[in-house]
Write a structure and sequence with these properties.
The chain is an alpha+beta fold. It has 8 helices and 13 strands.
């Protein structure tokens, strides 16, 4: 494995693994590619490392836009290498992205949340080159340190996100970054800009009641229940990044979020409910298959409400450890994502852990700041 290390804008040493990079078969082909990258079918190790450093610079700068100005927000790494840089169009895209993230930072501040520092690590997983176009698959792992605004925040929040970067060769022997997209399903990572459209749809199936997202004047304490909520949280925080090999993954089949929450609920005492796999009134998992309600966000909600495994809460801030939150990003009536609360601060802020994007203890305020116009559903388990 060949690797390179470099320092991020927020002070962390980053490692980009280049084990899957396609390299020239000879020095002659390397020289030919350098002289005419538009005809290239491979890149050399130096260019591959430049791709990785540029990916790090862009993602680090996005993260830095969220940091508390008076603390450890540092100047981002240069968004250019000797032979690799942003295109004019991507430069404008990043300027818009940073503006969006600064607005998100302001919304977070209004909700009582800030970050003092961050550690972003970028690993280059694969590079494919064809006729002057390079596609880079990269994994970003970021940890942000919560500022002690109220004093009861957990130390950190973290996530792991996957990105596809598009590079195009230019006539002067250089490469330009022309596109950067997330390949994950689920809510945006906190440093990923984006907006959701608004639409409407109805359903005749058991329907959840939306939860308010404003901070309530009086916190609500979760009463004792019949399940082991600490076990639910412990399970989710154990497997948020390193998946439990006893279960199948569904990242490439619509997302793993509800599968992950179902696992945590089972760890806390939820019992299987037998029935046909496509009947939302059943909830089960075995070695060969699972019910639709185990993996589907909407089906999980229908089962949960019909079986009275949980009730809807009027406000997302009422959630306690072991409670579940769902989101409908575009308000089309179909729930898109499922998360579980694994920590609640003394002042009443729930922190959620989930898959797709794999995330640890992200505050509900941070999610709302990224999706202020989405529909939210809170479930008391």
């Amino acid at each position: 494995m060949k690797s390179t290390t470099f320092r991020s804008a927020v002070g962390a040493v980053l490692t980009a693994a280049l084990s899957a990079v396609v390299l020239p078969v000879s020095a002659a082909s390397a020289a030919e590619n350098a002289e005419n990258p538009a005809a290239a079918t491979t890149v050399d190790a130096t260019t591959a490392r430049s791709f990785g450093r540029l990916a790090d610079a862009v993602l680090t700068q996005r993260t830095a836009a969220l940091l508390d100005d008076g603390r450890s927000a540092r100047r981002a790494a240069p968004l250019a290498e000797r032979d690799v840089r942003l295109s004019a169009g991507q430069t404008r895209t990043e300027e818009t992205a940073l503006s969006s993230l600064r607005a998100r930072k302001a919304r977070l501040a209004a909700l009582g949340e800030a970050y003092t520092s961050a550690d972003t690590r970028v690993a280059v997983d694969r590079i494919r080159v064809a006729a002057g176009h390079a596609t880079v698959q990269a994994t970003e792992t970021t940890t942000l340190t919560y500022k002690k605004v109220r004093g009861d925040e957990p130390p950190t929040t973290g996530f792991q996100a996957h990105h596809r970067l598009s590079f195009t060769a230019t006539a002067d022997g250089k490469w330009q970054l022309t596109g950067l997209t997330s390949t994950d399903d689920g809510p945006l990572a906190v440093n990923e800009p984006g907006t959701a459209p608004v639409a409407a749809r109805t359903t005749d199936l058991p329907e959840a009641t939306r939860a308010a997202i404003s901070v309530p004047s009086r916190p609500q304490t979760k009463p004792a229940g019949s399940y082991d909520y600490a076990a639910m949280a412990s399970y989710a925080e154990k497997y948020w990044q390193n998946y439990n090999p006893a279960y199948r993954k569904f990242n490439d089949a619509g997302g793993d979020c509800t599968n992950f929450v179902s696992q945590a609920l089972k760890a806390g005492g939820w019992a299987h409910s037998s029935g046909d796999y496509d009947d939302y009134r059943s909830w089960w998992y075995d070695t060969s298959y699972q019910s639709a309600s185990w993996v589907g966000a909407n089906e999980w909600s229908w089962f949960t409400l019909d079986a009275k495994r949980a009730t809807n809460l009027a406000n997302v801030y009422y959630m306690g450890v072991g409670d579940v939150m769902q989101m409908d990003f575009d308000k089309d009536g179909s729930k898109d994502h499922t998360m579980i609360v694994t920590y609640r601060s003394a002042s009443g802020v729930p922190y959620l852990t989930y898959h797709s994007v794999n995330t640890y203890r992200k505050s509900v305020a941070s999610i709302i700041a990224s999706y202020p116009n989405s529909a939210y559903y809170a479930y008391r388990t």
